[in-house]
Amino acid sequence: MLIDKITSRQNPLIKRFRDVRQGQERHLILIEGVRLIEEAINAQLHFEVVVYTDRLHNTERGQKLYDQLLKLSCRGALVTEPIMLAMSDVSSPQGVAAIAHLPYASMDDAINKPVPLVVIAHQLQDPGNIGTIIRTAEAVGADSLITTLGTVNPFNLKALRAAMGAAFRLPIILSIKVPQVLEFCQTSGLQIVTASTKGQTEYTKFDWKLPTALILGSEADGIDKFIEKAAKENISIPMAKPVESLNVATASAILLYEAARQRQFQFSEVS
Predict the structure, then answer these.
(1) Which of 31, 211, 225, 250 sits most deeply, having the most CB atoms within 10 A of its CB?
(2) What pTM was computed for the model?
(3) Could you please report the per-residue DSSP string of 20-59?
């Protein structure tokens, strides 16, 4: 890593970080903080540029990360704390940030196990929720996560923080039209299951041992009729009154761990 020193707020690199943070370069993602950059390095993401402050050397973990960064084939920049703050998405930056290439996955990467479990996020809007769903999906050994058009970007910083590195490892296929998703499920032999408070079958009584696609809709809008018609089952999670619904990330964890339980927790490493 070749290292420059940047002291001016007018440096074009600052604008570039802001542009990437705002999603203006869709093939790139912004990563901040020691933990996420460690995870990105371990996942072998392609880094374009890394910026850091002297504060990175203040801890043993930070120094170890710095030594790893020196081995990367990308641009590096030592910046002042005010400049890091101008680049950052948070009010208290950890002293290191990077621009990396978006991990790419296509529909061909959506299935990698003999009895697949695919999670489909349909028009979810909260980045924290989708990040948590990604983390849970990896934890239960799901094959992949597919997002439909209109779903929040799972690679924005808030989602990445919630996913805790899982978004760099689990295949994530972005912004697929609903008819294409349903056709993929049909041709791949995946039973489609949705969940709602009006579901006819309790989630523990559904057969998760078959190849399955779990479609998760937003709390506000739920699943549209087109998807419901294609679903094999609309399942429910029992709740005590007066509770009417669960947060979608919480519901996904309950459903996916039931799937893992029925599959006897036969996890394998996500490729």
Answers:
(1) 31
(2) 0.94
(3) HHTTSSTTEEEEESHHHHHHHHHTT--EEEEEE-GGGGGS
> Residue 121's closest CA among 235, 245, 229, 252?
252
Tell me the CATH number at 96: 3.30.1330.30
Amino acid at 71: K
Q: How high is the mean pLDDT of the chain?
A: 94
Number of structural domains the chain divides into: 2
pLDDT reported for residue 135:
98
Rounded Cα–Cα distance for residues 185 and 200 (Å)? 22
- The answer to whether 30 touches 89, Cβ cutoff 8 Å, is yes
- The answer on 218 and 165 residing in a single domain is yes
In a domain, 19, yes or no: yes
Write the burial class of residue 154 (CB in 10 Å: 0-12 exposed, 13-18 middle, 19+ buried): buried
SS3 state of residue 198? coil
Q: Which domain holds residue 42?
A: 2-101
Per-residue pLDDT of 89-102, as tens digits, reads: 888 889 999 999 99
Cis, peptide link before residue 242, omega less than 30° from 0: yes
> What Rg value do the Cα atoms of the chain yield, rounded?
20
CA-wise closest residue to 213 among 118, 136, 109, 106: 118
**Residue 99 and residue 17 in contact, taking contact as beta carbons nearer than 8 Å:** yes
- Residue 134 token pair: 């990604």
Is the per-residue pLDDT at 270 higher than 80? no
